[in-house]
Structure formats: C-alpha cells, structure tokens
Amino acid sequence: QWQLAESGGGSVQPGNSMRLSCVNSGVTLEYYSIGWFRQAPGKEREGVSCISGSDGHTYHADSVKGRFTIARDNAKNAVYLQMNSLKSEDTGVYYCVPVSCYDRSVWYGGNDWGEGTLVTVSS
C-alpha cells in the first residue's frame, strides 16, 4: 500500500497555530479520502479529521471541531491540517493515511502507519 509523508510538526505554546502537511509523490491524492489520526503519549490512536475523495465533505472530531480544518491543495498534491487555538491535549504524533471518511467518523483498517509528525503544545 502506498504511504503518505507527514510534516510540519514542532513545538508551540497553547493558543498558537500550526499547519501539518501530507503528501505523496506517486499517487494523485484528490481521488482519495485522506484522514489525520493522532496518538498522544500513553493513549490510543484516534481519528481527528478526514476529507472525502468523492464529494469533498469533511469530518472533524468533537475535540478539534472549530479549531482544526482539513483541506486539499490539488495543485501541490497535498492535504493539510490547519490547527488553531492549540491546547496541551493536542500534543501527540500525527499521521495521515488513506481512509473511509464518513459524516460522523473516520476509519482506517490498515496498519501501514508512516513516521508521523510530532506536535508538542506546551508553555
């Protein structure tokens, strides 16, 4: 299965913003549903957001709704996760993967997680 590459993580203070990028050089991402998951230290991985490849609808988990926005840039073959008003509980490793994107959830049945990108929100 083709793998996506995440980037853009780093350390920020609470309340600040960050944008994560997800790219792949060999596959045209606009035809696929792409999702972002995250794994906080000591916790299970959770679905954060996704964008549909069929109709462009998006899903955001309640914990990030109103603060995070997922979007595509087809010209750059990329999917972004814009994260605003970051909180300490947003800390974790963020992964992007091809998913099934529903109105109220995101699902990934594979086990081909990339390296992810670490986001640390701390004062």
Describe this structure in words.
This protein has no helices and 12 strands. It is mostly beta strands. The strands form 3 sheets. Strands 2-12-9-4-5-6 form a 6-stranded mixed sheet, with no helix packed on it. A 4-stranded antiparallel sheet has the order 1-3-8-7, with no helix packed on it.
Keywords:
123 residues; mainly beta; 4-stranded antiparallel β-sheet; 12 strands
Give the topology.
Layout: E1 5-7, E2 10-12, E3 18-23, E4 34-39, E5 46-51, E6 58-60, E7 68-73, E8 78-83, E9 92-98, E10 100-101, E11 106-107, E12 117-121
Parallel strand pairs: 2-12
Antiparallel strand pairs: 1-3, 3-8, 4-5, 4-9, 5-6, 7-8, 9-12, 10-11
State the low-pLDDT regions, or none. Answer: none
Strand composition percent: 35-45%
Q: Rounded to an integer, what's the Rg over CA atoms?
A: 13 Å
Mean pLDDT: 95
Oligomer: single chain
Separation of the first and last Cα atoms: 39 Å
The number of distinct β-strands equals: 12
Structural class: mainly beta
Secondary-structure element pattern, one letter each? EEEEEEEEEEEE
The proportion of residues forming helix, as a percent range, comes to under 10%
- Side by side, the strands of the main sheet go 2-12-9-4-5-6
Shape: globular
Largest pleated sheet: 6 strands, mixed
Q: DSSP helix count?
A: 0
Short note summarizing the structure:
The chain has 123 residues and is an all-beta fold.
